[in-house]
Amino acid sequence: MSSVKPNSDTAQAAIVELNGLADMFKRIQETCWKKCISDISDSLLSPGEISCTDRCIAKYMETHTLIGNYLQGTSENKSPK
C-alpha cells in the first residue's frame, strides 16, 4: 500500500501565504482604525469614517496586489526554463 504525502514545500508555502494575509489584515485593522475612527460612542460609522476606511483599505489592497504581482513576476523570471 502506498502512502500519499502532501508536498511539504507546497504546504509550507501555503502556510507562509496565510500568515502573510493574516498579518496584512491585522495591519489594515490597526492602521485604518487609528486613522479613520475617532469616536466609538456611536454604534454606527459616520459617512466620513466609512469613506476614510474604504479608501484606507483600498490602498492596502492595491499595494498588496502590486507587490504580489511584482514578486510573482520576479519568481517566474528566476525559474528554470
Automatic annotation (TrEMBL):
**SUPFAM superfamilies xrefs:** Tim10-like
The answer to whether the entry has keyword rRNA-binding is no
Note the topology in the membrane: Peripheral membrane protein
Q: Which UniProt keywords apply?
A: Chaperone, Disulfide bond, Membrane, Metal-binding, Mitochondrion, Mitochondrion inner membrane, Protein transport, Translocation, Transport, Zinc
Query: Matching Gene3D superfamilies, A to Z?
Result: Mitochondrial import inner membrane translocase subunit tim13 like domains (1.10.287.810)
Matching InterPro entries = Tim10-like (IPR004217), Tim10-like_dom_sf (IPR035427)
Using the record's annotation, list all stretches that form the Tim10-like domain. 17-72
- Its GO CC terms? mitochondrial inner membrane
Name the major location: mitochondrion
In alphabetical order, the GO MF annotations are: metal ion binding
- Residues passing through the membrane, by range: none
Residues folding into a coiled coil are none
Q: Which GO terms describe its biological process?
A: protein insertion into mitochondrial inner membrane; protein transport
Q: Where in the cell is it found?
A: Mitochondrion inner membrane
- Which family is annotated? Belongs to the small Tim family.
Domain notes from UniProt? The twin CX3C motif contains 4 conserved Cys residues that form 2 disulfide bonds in the mitochondrial intermembrane space.
Function statement: Mitochondrial intermembrane chaperone that participates in the import and insertion of some multi-pass transmembrane proteins into the mitochondrial inner membrane. Also required for the transfer of beta-barrel precursors from the TOM complex to the sorting and assembly machinery (SAM complex) of the outer membrane. Acts as a chaperone-like protein that protects the hydrophobic precursors from aggregation and guide them through the mitochondrial intermembrane space.
Q: How does it assemble?
A: Heterohexamer.
Q: Can you say what this protein is called?
A: Mitochondrial import inner membrane translocase subunit
